[in-house]
Amino acid sequence: MSGMKMNELFSWIKTIVLAVVIAVFINSVVIVNATVPTGSMENTIMPGDRIIALRLTYYFSEPQRGDIVVFKYPDDESTLYVKRVIGLPGETVEVKDGKVYINGADKPLNDDFVKDEPVGDYGPYEVPEDCYFMMGDNRNNSLDSRFWVNKYVQKNKILGKVYFKYFKGFEMLN
């Protein structure tokens, strides 16, 4: 091979390696790119939807009630879950007749994003410091904090805040 062709080959190799390094960096440090396999977040996120979560969000702020997050499932950390933050550290969460009450409030949370009229009584759950209580938007069909052995998600297990879904249509979520 001539010197000119070798230089061009090395140039292409450097470009491809740099692209791979940047993609790995973005996917492991900046974003979480995931497919949602179940209907636990219907109608906000449908089965098969692809989502993007920003990993950097909670380096600068705390998770807020209502945030949709990607996290390591507390009962099997090799599995990622997508749910909505309901209970914050130090709060008491109770579900009565399907409605969520925080710290014994007289009025339930505004949960107009919930798919169907929720049913059931659960709790009370006292959320430990540095932990969060998660629920799906499809409350009657969601394996969430109410049913886990380890009920709470530690802050350091939250991988990112979901900002949009991009497959089956683009939609901002938070």
Model regions low in confidence, pLDDT < 50 over at least 5 residues: none
What is the average per-residue confidence, as pLDDT, rounded to a whole number? 90
CA radius of gyration: 20 Å
The structure class reads alpha+beta
The percent range for strand residues is 25-35%
The description of the largest β-sheet is: 8 strands, antiparallel
Q: Kindly, what is the distance between the CA atoms of the first and last residues, rounded to a whole number of angstroms?
A: 55 Å
Order of secondary-structure elements:
HEEHEEEEEEEEE
What share of the residues lie within helices?
10-25%
Number of strand elements: 11
Q: How many DSSP H or I helices?
A: 2
| Net shape | elongated
Describe this structure in words.
The chain starts with a helix and ends with a strand. The protein has 2 helices and 11 strands. By secondary structure, it is of the alpha+beta class. Strands 1, 2, 3, 4, 8, 9, 10 and 11 form an 8-stranded antiparallel beta sheet that branches. Strands 6-5-7 form a 3-stranded antiparallel beta sheet, with no helix packed on it. Strand 3 (68-72) and strand 4 (80-87) form a beta hairpin. It has helices at 3-30, 57-60, and strands at 31-35, 50-54, 68-72, 80-87, 92-96, 99-102, 122-126, 131-135, 153-154, 158-165, 171-172. The longest helix has 28 residues, at 3-30.
